[in-house]
Amino acid sequence: VNGEVVGANQSKTALKLLKQRMLEANAVSYKGGELSFVQDVEVRAQGSGEATVMSIDSIEEKLSGNTKESVVYTVNSGDTVSEIAEKYSTSVASILSLNPGLQTDMIHAGDKITISASVPYLSVQETVTENYVKLIGYETTKQTTDDLYTTQSRVIKEGVYGEANVVADVVYVNGEEQSRVIMDWQVTKEPENEVIEVGTKTP
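Below the sequence we write its predicted structure tokens.
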């Protein structure tokens, strides 16, 4: 895994079957897309003594566990350091030690924080082509009328959302969306603007 020897077994066929089984087992909420490991996972021949011979079950148990890894977290609005620590099963002290100068009461949306997190030993990426209908927002236009006071307004035409048929390539890692690339966008219904009348008459 990423060049690190995890274990060895005399049956190359059994190892290849394990690799496929692990790929399918780690595909969280499989959506029918193309699966691949995020890590570089390979089965290859090793010289004698270069790797510990293990049973297939032992190798699978090791690959099914977690490992510590440094990740960069982007702060969202409303986040606190304690909540981030809880989310990643770490401590506030650990986060502070990895981020010199960080103050627990002075984080803002968009800040980058390094975290030593417990992550799956293997992560699965799934690329899915999705087809869906996307609503297109409408604009609001205003016009004046002397039938209303300056403190009054009224909607004379309701806005109507438009619609578009969208084709997108979506990448999920361990079931969570990582990216979405729009491949095709076909407008099937144009939006209709909302029209509001605003009064000009002095009360």
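The longest helix spans residues 12-25.
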